[in-house]
Amino acid sequence: MICSPVVQFYYENNRFIEANTMNCDVFFISESTGITADELGSSLLSQFPQFSFTKRYHPFIDTIEKAEILVEQINEIAEGQSVKPLVFATMANKQINKVLSGVAANYYELFDNYLDKIADNLGVVPRRESGLMHGLVNELQYDARIDAVNYTLAHDDAMVLKGLDEADVIMVGVSRSGKTPTCLYLALKYGIKAANYPLTSDDFERHAFPKEILKYKEKLIVTTISPQRLHHIREKRRPNSRYASMPICASEIKMAMDLYDRHGLVPLDVTSQSVEELATQIVRIYRLSKSVD
Amino acid sequence: MICSPVVQFYYENNRFIEANTMNCDVFFISESTGITADELGSSLLSQFPQFSFTKRYHPFIDTIEKAEILVEQINEIAEGQSVKPLVFATMANKQINKVLSGVAANYYELFDNYLDKIADNLGVVPRRESGLMHGLVNELQYDARIDAVNYTLAHDDAMVLKGLDEADVIMVGVSRSGKTPTCLYLALKYGIKAANYPLTSDDFERHAFPKEILKYKEKLIVTTISPQRLHHIREKRRPNSRYASMPICASEIKMAMDLYDRHGLVPLDVTSQSVEELATQIVRIYRLSKSVD
């Protein structure tokens, strides 16, 4: 599933307007992965829901020759369009940037605007080297991220209650409340060892967390979710099951909340938050707990 | 593991210079997650290895009051510093941006430079709403990403050889060559259903891929790695084991290459590539196979 267009509406001047009614081609170019160009470019595009954007990615444009060929390709595509294409690029190399900037489209190079200003502020010269952000530059730090992924996988859904002393955080919540994707994101992006523990009927009957979990109270991130959203997610997994039914969803959430209350824990509401938003909050809590802000 | 400083060197004017010898405080600010500010800001900072940067994250600064308090905090920290702090912000709201821009530091707002220009190019007004990039905006697309994560987890290390018709890509390689983190990244970031299959002695003895895998030849991403790197990774997992020994690593890689050759497949070399770089290439191959560039 990539870029599947969905009819959406946005609200403006007291009425709903159908989104994606105009089209514009967008190119993301970089000498390396192009993740940064995609990130800022797509953020900017998200402010224009009136448009549907046809995105084209051109990573690893690291020679003048590749740049020249690409410029020709873009110019050809640009010719027939009523709305001139947008081009977002992050180029460390000034020569390649110069070639690309000659494109017959709206060219936005995202580094140059800032690189020289920052250099002035810091009083040093920038490296102007590509691949420093997402390449294998710092092997130790990279290996630590991969270790965190392995740890998180091994401690997903409380498959192992041992080794939790190694965890940076332990996410707790009812089944299917989004713990696993959030933990994986924390590991992959931030190198955080994120274990997770699903609350089950055992915990509810015991009226307490297991002692192996409670031991790490300061690392716990307990979560809650609306019964409607949980029902929706579980229905997709096991349609028409008791497990997915509204009464069961509502009752599990209620029992979870009682448990948190009993242990003096305040839950994070995951209902309308994305993995990225949850991870941002958890990283924040984790950093505060380490006195790093 | 976050931001652990490591002594590194960089090469300039024919000599190695110790990196991180100067320090500068950096603030990342956003009304939402701050992922975009972090992404471009950190990309820019990676061009200055002479400095070690103390990074501070301030997501969810979505009111003028929060912005005012933050400006005071930054000004206080800035006072004692010889190098003025850098502030990277992505602000959709002009009023909050105005408050922040008064900070006694080098302030870089990353949206404003482009938002009005793009609006001019497109002939429409930007929404200037926060959380459009990493929030739960398009629920269908978001759910597809989470589905991809679940699929990838269920099809990690060939735990299930069924359901591969649903896979977007199937990564193949010897054990510990980085398939799992790359597949998880593909799923989390791009919503790509990425299964993976580790080559084992069974495959080598059979001199062929299993037919369940070969059936999906057009989806296969076969990988290779240097014996040294594989040895290094496996040693950390099982020190001094036969599994991690150089002869076994070298022989497995050789047998894998013979297999690829037999099936007419060209491998991706993962040796010195990060998860992000590999994913970028795989997405590219996948998009080309779908005739989407």
Descriptive overview:
The structure is a homodimer of 293-residue chains. Chain A starts with 8 loop residues before the first strand and ends with a helix. Chain A has eleven helices and ten strands. The first copy, chain A, is globular and about 70 Å long. Residues 1-6 of chain A have low confidence and may be disordered. In chain A, 43% of the residues lie in helices and 18% in strands. In chain A, the strands form three sheets. Chain A has a four-stranded parallel sheet, with helices on both faces. The first copy, chain A, has 293 residues and is of the alpha/beta class. Chains A and B meet through α1, β4, α4, α5 and α6 of A and α1, β4, α4, α5 and α6 of B.
Provide key terms for this protein.
homodimer, 293 residues, alpha/beta, Rossmann fold, 2 domains, 4-stranded parallel beta sheet, 11 helices, 43% helix, disordered N terminus, kinase (chains A, B)
Care to give the gist of this entry?
Chains A, B: InterPro entries: Kinase-pyrophosphorylase. 2 copies of one chain form a homodimer. Helices cover 43% and strands 18% of the residues of chain A.
Largest sheet of chain A: 4 strands, parallel
Q: Classify the oligomer.
A: homodimer
Helical residue percent of chain A? 40-55%
Poorly predicted ranges of chain A (pLDDT <50, ≥5 residues)?
1-6
Our count of domains of chain A comes out at 2
Name the CATH architecture of the largest domain in chain A. 3-Layer(aba) Sandwich
Task: Kindly state the number of beta strands of chain A.
Answer: 10
Sheet/helix structural class of chain A: alpha/beta
Order of strands in the sheet with most strands of chain A: 4-3-5-6
Using CB atoms under 8 Å apart, which protein chain pair has the greatest interface?
A: A-B, 102 and 102 residues
* Straight-line distance between termini of chain A: 37 Å
Can you give the mean pLDDT of chain A? 91
The CATH class of the largest domain in chain A:
Alpha Beta
GO molecular function (chains A, B): ATP binding; protein serine/threonine kinase activity
Keywords (chains A, B): Kinase, Nucleotide-binding, Pyruvate, Serine/threonine-protein kinase, Transferase
Protein name (chains A, B): Phosphoenolpyruvate synthase regulatory protein
Pfam family, one (chains A, B): Kinase-PPPase
